Every structure is written in C-alpha cells, then in structure tokens.
Amino acid sequence: MEHHIAEDGVDHTTPEPRVAVAALIRAAGVHGLRLRRVLAMLVAGWHSVEDLIRTQATPRRTVEELLAATGTDLGRRRVDGRELVRIRPECAADYRAEFATAELPAPVDQAPAAARLSESLRAAVRADVAAVPPPMAALDHVQATPESVLRRAAWLASHYDLDNASVLFLGDHDLTSTALGRLHPDLAITVVDVDDRVLAHIDRIAEREGLRIRCLHADLRFGLPPSVLGTSDLVFTDPPYTPEGVGLFTARAAECLRDGGRVLIAYGYSDRTPALGLKVQQRLHRLGMLFEAILPDFDRYDGAQAVGSASDLYVCRPLGSGTTRRGDTRIYTHGPQSGESTGGPSAAALDALRGLVSAPTPLPVVEAEWTSPTTGDAALIDAMADPGPWLFRVLAAANTRQLGMLVRNNHPDLLDAAAQRALSDLVGAKFRLKFHRSTPDGRHAVVVASSIAASSAAEPDATRPAAESSIAGALLRKAHGRIANVWREALIRRESARGRTLTKNQARDLVLASAPRRDELDLRLIDLPRHRVAAVLAAADQPAAEDASAAGSAE
Predict the structure, then answer these.
(1) What residues does 168 pair with on adjacent strands?
(2) Looking at per-residue confidence, does 10 or 500 come out higher?
(3) pLDDT for position 5
(4) Contact call for residues 397 and 222 (beta carbons, < 8 A)
C-alpha cells in the first residue's frame, strides 16, 4: 500500500489492488459471487470487457469498477481492434488463493434441455441469426445470442405440451420463432412485428424449411391484427425495456391469449437501478399478471451492457382484465419515439406540408395511424416519428384525392431513387407519389400522394390500366377488408364494366387460383408484411388472372 500525505495533511492512500478488490467484494455482500466469477475469468486468461459482462450478466459499470480496483495487477492488450484484459500471470496465483476462484459453484442451468440439442440445429440457428437484418436503434433492437434463442426454444418445448398448440411472438428480431419452429416443425407459430425486414427474413426461413410460421405486420401502439386476437396458448415477447414498452407489449399479449394461456416476457434491469425494475413489475401487476416464475439471467445479448447484457424470463399468468388502448407512442429508449425525445416538426415544416397539398379549406395536421381508413378530399399527416414502416401503411389506409405526409429526410423509403421507386411501384395502382427531399430543411421531407382514380379522368394515361379495372388498386383502396372478399368483388365489377358476367363462385375460384398463398386470403392487406403485400398485388393484376376471367365469362 502506497501512502501519500498531501499538504492538507490528509493521507491519500492507494490500496494494494487485491485489498481494493476484496473491499468491493465485501461491499457486494451475498452478491459478491458474480464479482468472484468475473475474477475467475480474468485469472484464467484474456477476455474482452463485453465477454465479462455478458458471461456473468453483470452491469458494465460494476465490471469497470472491478477492473479499476485490480490496478497494476491487470494486463491489457489489443487483438483485431478489441481490448482484452486479464490478471497478470505473476499475480494469478495470489488471486486464485485469496478469492477461491477455482472453487466457485457453477450457475444453475435454467434450461438443461438446451444442452441436448443437436449440433445441426445449433448451426442452423447460428446461421439464421447471422443473416438477420441489422438492429434498428429506434426500435431498441439488441440481438440475443444464438445460445439464448436455443435456450428459449428448449425451455418452451420442455415446459409446455406444444402438440396442437398455437404460439405467438410479439416482436422477434431475435428469431426465437424460427428456432422453436425448427425444433417443432408442426407447431403453429405466428410472428407480429413492426419491422418488415425481420418479417421477410423469418418468412424466407419458414418457406425454405417448411415451417408453419405466419408473419403479420403491426405497430402495437396502434393495435393488433384482428386475426390474432384470442388465438394463442403462449405469447412470447422481448419488449422495449421501458415501463411503457413492457406494459404495452404485455397488455397486447394478453389480448391474444386463449383461456389458460401464458405470457412469457424477457426483461432485464441493472441491479444498480432496482427502482426501474420495481416500476416495471408494478406495471405488470396492474395489468393483472401473476408471476408464476422469474428465471434470473436467462438470456444473453450482444449489447445492452448497462443491464449486464442479460435479461430474466418472466412467466406470467393473466388474472385481471387489464387492457390497453392507443396512447403515447414514446415507448423506446432511443430515437424519435423515446421518452426523452422532444423533436416535433418545426413550424416551417408544417407550413411546407400545407403548401404542397391543395385543399378548399385549411386542413389540420394529424398524427400518423392506419387502424382505419383515412377518408375525405385531402389529409395532412405528421409522420416524423416513423421508424420506417409507417409510410406505406398510411398510404394503404388513405382513400383521399390527395395526401401529404411529413417524414424524416433520412426515411428509408426516401434515401435514394431505388427506394423511392420501390414505394411508388408498390402503391402505383392507387397513388402517384412525389418526393420533396430536404423540405423545408435538411431534417424534413414531404411525400405527396395523388389518387390515380381522381387524375385518370382529367388526364387519361394510356400506359396505365384504368383505375377502376385494377384489382391491385381495389385491394389498396380497401386495405382493411378481407382480401378474398375485396378481390372477388373487384373481379366481378371489372368484368361487369367490360360487359361480361362473372358469378361469385367463378370469381372465388379465380381468386383461389391466382392467390400466391391461400392462407392469406382470410387476412387484411394492411396486416401483411410489405413483401407479401407486393406478392398479392402482383398476383391480382397478372395477365393470367385476366385471361382466366375472360374464359370464365365465355362459359
């Protein structure tokens, strides 16, 4: 121990590293075992700080305090741009003896069945996770490790009878659904997510592997697809770790359960901020959730170091009647939808929006939503909080002559000509789009949609099918209707306009023959993932469908 007597007469003492470490462990009391396990890793060899945090489920600040206490006994080096640390070999024996790092009990495995999973399944899940779209910070994405995804699947399979069961995932960037589907290929699984990229990735895996996974789009702040209400035996969710986020996702999960169902929630908080954990648990209790089990440190993540890169698994039984409705959209910890965000549109941006949409009377600017059709001559929409998926949904829900939307200038659908063309093509049977980037400044942009039905009479376009003859246009104009019904009635109307007769049964058969997936016909177009919307619209207006309808009328 080094003593330094300052001019103020105070002994500013720097303790020996092992003395400082011992003091930290004593201060932790019965929770010092985690610190000793971190020490055991440091004694054993080189590790990154991230590895220490994730392996021992210990908050970053706690690990950093321990590393600081080891002082000069800690060795450091950089490998491939990563800093690695360890206890210096000449000090390792002293640490091993003083802190008994070789005699520590192993943590209890909460999912022993995971250890028995085949290597081929492990390799497949690792490949699925490696190919998942990059996390979106605005949606609080933090990727669970493949091992955690497998543990979830194994735990569910070993604790519940999944024969003839239905399992729903509310959000699944982690890909727990595909791991469970690979483990139980006959299991009926539904995934609801706001991220169309994730839904497309899961859908590709399911189609390739023959898994019974149905993907639907929803932003839970605005509601759920009607097709999932009261249909599931188990609902799994890894929500945003704010009280508002956990509360919303859990309430939506309860809406989807059958009698006797359970909600499983991955949620973690730092032991340095227990008040936040209490606030979340109180929110769950107010929703009528009985905690049947809380499995500590069940999951591990590549990130979320503030909470130890870990979360607990909550097994909840709904006993109350807690429900939710649309409220504050600020449920995330990052981005324009976080609780700390105050970045609304500027007055100049609102003026620019109003100036680009013609209307006989001044229009109010309303917040974006698509739970029901938007009607009227024109509408102005504030979608500055859109993380990416909203723009298409609002366009699909709108049945107006003109629609103006204020969005972020870096919105994914506006970033380049290819992105703008993809959106224009998707809604081309309903709207013509104009993109006004950097309007009125570098933060804002305006998208103006003009109905082709309104413009076709004034400006006939021989290169574009008449609006009333486009089945895709009909589907887009009635995006909240059952796809089979809208498609069938649109076929009948089109043939009638051509002087042909098509019965309901004939139209139904044509729809069945043309639909890319028959199980989607009972759904609403607004609830499909964006890539499935494109597939349905392309099939609806394909030449084969027109030839078949002509043949039907000739009969």
Answers:
(1) 190, 235
(2) 500
(3) 45
(4) no
Strand order across the beta sheet in which 289-300 lies: 213-217, 188-193, 166-170, 232-237, 257-267, 310-318, 289-300
- pTM (predicted TM-score): 0.87
* Polymer length of the chain: 555
Helix (H, G, I), strand (E, B) or coil at 334: coil
Could you report the per-residue pLDDT of 245-269, keeping only the tens digit for each?
999 999 999 999 999 999 999 999 9
* 140, 193 contact by CB (below 8 A): no
Query: Is the per-residue pLDDT at 187 higher than 50?
Result: yes
525: tokens are 């177009």
Q: Contact, 314 vs 155, CB < 8 A?
A: no
Q: Quote the DSSP letter at residue 301.
A: B
Is the Cα torsion angle 406, 407, 410, 415 positive or negative in sign?
A: negative
Largest distance between two CA atoms of the chain: 108
* Type of residue at 128: D
DSSP code, position 134: P
One-letter-per-residue 3-state SS of 230-277: CCEEEEEECCCCCHHHHHHHHHHHHHCEEEEEEEEEEECCCCCCHHHH
Supply φ then ψ for residue 74, to 5 degrees.
-100, 130
Cβ density class 299-317: b for 16+ within 10 Å, e for less: bbbbebbbbbbbbbbbbbe
Rounded to the nearest angstrom, the gap between the alpha carbon of residue 284 and the centroid of all alpha carbons in its chain is 20
DSSP assignment of 181-231 equals: HHHSTT-EEEEEES-HHHHHHHHHHHHHHT--EEEEE--TTT---GGGTT-
Q: At what angle do helices 17-28 and 32-44 cross, to 10 degrees?
A: 140
Give residue-wise pLDDT tens across range 264-304: 999 999 999 999 999 999 999 999 999 999 999 999 998 78
Residue 369 contacts residue 363 (beta carbons within 8 Å): no
Four-residue CA torsion sign, 244, 250, 256, 258: negative
Q: Which residues contact 85 (CB under 8 A, 6 or more apart)?
A: 42, 46, 47, 48, 49, 52, 67, 74, 75, 76
Q: Measured between alpha carbons, how far is 118 from 181 in angstroms, rounded to an integer?
A: 14
Instruction: Give percent of the chain with pLDDT exceeding 90.
Output: 78
Expressed in percent and rounded to 5, the helix, strand and coil fractions of the chain are 45, 20, 35
What is the predicted pLDDT for the residue at 303? 78
How far is CA 89 from its chain centroid?
45
Q: Which is it for the CA torsion 386, 388, 392, 397, positive or negative?
A: negative
